[in-house]
Amino acid sequence: MIATRRRVVLGCAALVAAPAVRGADAPLRIVVAYPTGGVSDEIARLLAERLAIERGQPVMVENRPGNGGGIAMEMLARAPADGRLLVFSALSPLTMHPLRYDPLRDIAPVAAVMATATLVAGTSALPAESFAQMVALARAQPGTLRWATTGVGTTGHRVFEAIASALALQMVHIPYKGGGQSLVDALGGQFELMSTNVAATQLRLVAQQRLKALAVGAPRRLPALPAVPTLAELGVPQANLVSRFGLFAPGAAPRPWRDEVNAQVQRALRSPVLQARLRAGHNETAVGGVDPFEAAVCAELARPAGCHR
Questions:
Q1: CA distances to 6, 7, 124 from 246, in Å
Q2: What is the maximum alpha-carbon separation in the chain?
C-alpha cells in the first residue's frame, strides 16, 4: 500500500489539475535536498520522527541531492499541492540564477527549522594561519588558491563570491555535491580553502588542528570558537552569511494547511532529543509562524515588494 501511494504522489505532477490539499490526514513525505549523512539530513529525519507523532502516522523521508539543493527545489516547484510533499532545504537554492521556476510563485515557505553559521577554513595545503595572511597570499599569487564549497548557489558559495568580490581576489571555486566528500578532500589537502556549515565534525577537526578556522559567518563570535572573528569583524560584512533551513511546499499550498503544518513543526522542535542534536551541531533553532519565515525568504531574495501572497 505504501509503495502504491508513493507511485501516486510521484505521478501527480503529470496531472493538469492538482487535487485539493487533504490536510493533516494526508500521508506526508519529506524530501531532503542534500545527501545522506550530513547534519541537515539528520535533523530532517529527527524532525520527521516528531512530526509522525504529531500527525499520528508515518512520515517518509528521502534524499534528492544535487545542484546545491536546486534539484529538490525544482521538483517541488512542479509538484501538486496535495498536502503530501515537503522539501527540507536551505534558502540558498531559491537564489540561484537562472531558475526554471518563480521562487515566490512556485515555492511556498512553511516553517523555519534552524540557522547554521558558516565556517571559512584552511586545509593543510594552505601556507597561512589567519584570514589576513590568506588574503595576502591570494593577492601575491592570483588564481592559485582553490576554495571548495558544497555546491553552486549554496551559502558557502555566496560567502566565497562575496569575499572574492569585496577584496578583489582571484581564486578558483571548486563546487562539490555535498559536504561529505569536500571534508574528505580537505583532510587530504586537495585544496587550500573551504566554506562549510559549522557542525560538530568541523569543530572537532579544528580542535585537532586538521582544519584552520580563519573566520565565521555569524551574527557574533561562536562560543565554540571564541578566538575566531566573524567576517563582519574582518571587514567583509556582505560575506557574513548564515545558512537558514526550513520546510517548503508547492506554491499553491493553501495558507490554512501551511499554518497547520507550521504549528506541528513548532511543537516537534520542542523535542529534547531534537533540541540536543541542534545544540550539538551548534545550530540555532528557528521558531515562528509562516509570516516571519516567508519574510526571511523575501529578504534572501531581495524582493520584499513581490512577497505578498
A1: 23, 25, 34
A2: 63
- By C-alpha distance, which of 124, 90, 92, 96 is closest to 194? 124
* Sign of the alpha-carbon dihedral angle for 36, 40, 41, 43: positive
3-state secondary structure of 295: helix
Torsion of the alpha carbons at 161, 37, 188 and 228, rounded to the nearest 10: 50
3-state SS class at 173: strand
> Which position has the higher pLDDT, 175 or 282?
175
pLDDT at 14: 34
Contacts of 256 (CB under 8 A, 6+ apart): none
Grid coordinates belonging to 28: 506526508
Instruction: Say yes or no to pLDDT of 9 above 50.
Output: no
181 alpha carbon, distance to own chain's centre:
17
| Cα(152)–Cα(202) distance, integer angstroms | 20
Over the stretch 158-212, which tens digit does the pLDDT of each residue have? 999 999 999 999 999 999 987 788 999 999 999 999 999 998 889 999 999 999 9
Residue from 167, 179, 191 nearest 118 by CA: 179
- The helix (H) or strand (E) run that includes residue 41 is helix 39-55
Collapsing DSSP states into helix, strand and coil, what is residue 91?
coil
Residue pair 249/110 in contact (Cβ under 8 Å)? The answer is yes
The answer to whether the beta carbons of residues 177 and 137 sit under 8 Å apart is no
> Mean pLDDT throughout 244-266?
97
**96: exposed, middle or buried (Cβ count in 10 Å: 0-12, 13-18, 19+):** buried
Average pLDDT score over residue span 244-268: 97
User: Cα–Cα distances in Å, from 242 out to 89, 155, 294, 300?
Assistant: 13, 7, 17, 11
Neighbours of 303 (CB within 10 A): 12
Helix (H) or strand (E) holding 26: none
